């Protein structure tokens, strides 16, 4: 068997804050032979996710930081090219921790969910039916529990998670309101993603919140934190629920930036704030993805993908996501 | 019927932060005649509670601020001296919103719970079986849900709520740890209130937390907020629960003081933070008080009361509670 070459995006410098292209190198290495119990995965769609910032920063997170010299940790959808594990068949598609590279030698621990290309377009395995849609569905329903008529406010509402949250909240009979960074995104939220209203966080947000959420905010699906959250907290309704799903607004947590203390608002409004990490819920991925796929097949769910094809551009794509320059789920298609 | 005189502590100036004696006046007024549907209550024990700060400050709270010229809003245990309401019998004891005064003319809305002097000493109606014990029990079990072996950290642990939380957490099989303001309080927590360890927040708290809570903190029963909470947040265990029960550490919320942002800790540690206000749970008061009284009768619960007898000293007593100078539940006995 001839030696296969594998292009990889390798972390070569430790970033503080959002990783930049200069923290990575595109390298090319021969693939080692497959060991017992391993699979060779051919990557089709690489995922670009805000959470990747946390994978490379040496700061408090839910996973240890990626070591220098390692392939960038990333989710992807790929196909099993070869298998030395009886439980995993050649030809199957999987969603898993395959990294920003052409090929991945994976053990079962890296495989999150088998992707059925008949269920939905293959790319959705890394977005709508991947961590983004799964997060939207599970965090909204587990923590947010929107009731009919309630106001559900979503930050980064036009993003890969927020665009799904709006539609699901609307289906639950709630009134979704979008926080976005531009009028163009706001319009997309209302036209495509089920939102009833939107506001631009570059404008004075307190007044805009009072206008769009006159009875207060029952559920805040928070993908940003920061100044936006501060303002929202003060307009939460009694017994409101806050889903802490992301912290896009804060570039670095070393040290933690200052903000107004929240204890008094939490107490007097009886708020519940809860952190959500999708990987805690892996056993529910299949059932939840099936529900999302059924909504998609019934024409009740829209999604947007922002796909490019150059592996070398993956680091820049992550910078763009942090800058809000993506239009929907950011993916790199390799084949 | 001769005119009865009523001594009252009246709010005469609007405080910012903790109210001081100069914000009040002791006044004496004749009692008006009892209207249809009203009861005349003779106060026996007046309650002194940190929450009273919030009643008089003109800042965000769960009740509108007390108007100037009004009797200080306060809980008390009193006896029905006269009744013009068929459902309320003369001679019965009640716990309710009777204010810092000798007598209160009350409607049913002011009455929270009938107190049975056979169930437990009358004074406990305003403390252990009043909002303090009820808060300890319901907030700990509803939000904290301590599991056997878990670490339950409590701020203001020697106070009227904290002293009960320690004992209840111990009974649930958890490991209660006290945060207090002095070694003397710490010793009391361990000797009397079921705590396994204590730390003084005047000492460097991060290191003390690591020593006393080496596996992290599963439940934080937070009566203080402020710097203490900031340090605790960073040593919470995964899936930890924080009960936001009080904000003793912050004297004024206008404007909200700054502190390190919590979003990243909440997210990465999957914390749940929830505000607790006891008055949301009024329908469970009787059943919960009965459980606490049964524990008391069985010798499984200790409580401390710090009782004085001078109505005029009530404002100073509140200052003392904020300064941590009370030893147990602060009460004013009037008869």
Automatic annotation (TrEMBL), chains A, B:
A Pfam family matched in the record: ADH_zinc_N
InterPro entries documented for this protein: ADH-like_C, ADH_N_2, ER, GroES-like_sf, MDR_fam, NAD(P)-bd_dom_sf
CDD domains from the UniProt entry: PGDH
A single GO molecular function term of this UniProt record: oxidoreductase activity, acting on the CH-CH group of donors, NAD or NADP as acceptor
Keyword tags: Oxidoreductase
Domain Enoyl reductase (ER): 17-332
Coiled-coil blocks: none
Highest taxon of the lineage: Bacteria
SMART domains: PKS_ER
Protein's recorded name: Enoyl reductase (ER) domain-containing protein
Species this chain originates from: Solimonas aquatica
């Amino acid at each position: 068997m001839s030696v296969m070459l594998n292009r990889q995006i390798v972390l070569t410098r430790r970033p503080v804050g959002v990783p930049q292209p200069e923290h990575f190198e595109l390298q090319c290495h021969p693939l080692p032979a497959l060991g017992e119990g391993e699979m060779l995965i051919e990557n089709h769609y690489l995922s670009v996710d805000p959470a990747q910032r946390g994978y490379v920063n040496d700061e408090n997170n839910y996973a240890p930081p990626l070591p220098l010299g390692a392939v960038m940790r990333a989710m992807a959808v790929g196909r099993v090219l070869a298998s030395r594990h009886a439980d995993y068949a050649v030809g199957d598609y999987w969603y898993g921790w395959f990294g920003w590279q052409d090929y991945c030698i994976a053990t079962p621990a890296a495989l999150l969910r088998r992707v059925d290309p008949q269920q939905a377009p293959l790319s959705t395995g890394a977005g709508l039916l991947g961590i983004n849609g799964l997060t939207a569905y599970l965090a909204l329903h587990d923590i947010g529990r929107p009731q009919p008529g309630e106001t559900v406010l979503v930050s980064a509402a036009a993003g890969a998670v927020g665009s799904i949250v709006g539609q699901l909240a609307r289906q639950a009979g709630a009134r979704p309101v979008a926080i976005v960074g531009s009028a163009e995104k706001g319009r997309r939220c209302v036209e495509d993603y089920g939102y009833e209203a939107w506001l631009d966080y570059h404008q004075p947000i307190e007044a805009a919140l009072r206008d769009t959420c006159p009875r207060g905010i029952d559920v805040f699906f928070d993908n940003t934190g920061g100044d936006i959250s501060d303002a929202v907290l003060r307009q939460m309704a009694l017994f409101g629920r806050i889903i802490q799903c992301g912290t896009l607004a804060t570039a670095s947590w070393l040290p933690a930036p200052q903000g107004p203390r929240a204890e008094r608002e939490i107490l007097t409004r009886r708020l519940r704030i809860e952190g959500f990490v999708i990987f805690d819920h892996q056993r529910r991925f299949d059932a939840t993805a099936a529900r999302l796929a059924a909504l998609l097949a019934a024409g009740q769910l829209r999604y947007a993908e922002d796909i490019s094809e150059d592996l070398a551009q993956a680091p820049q794509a992550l910078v763009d996501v942090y800058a809000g320059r993506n239009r929907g789920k950011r993916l790199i298609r390799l084949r």
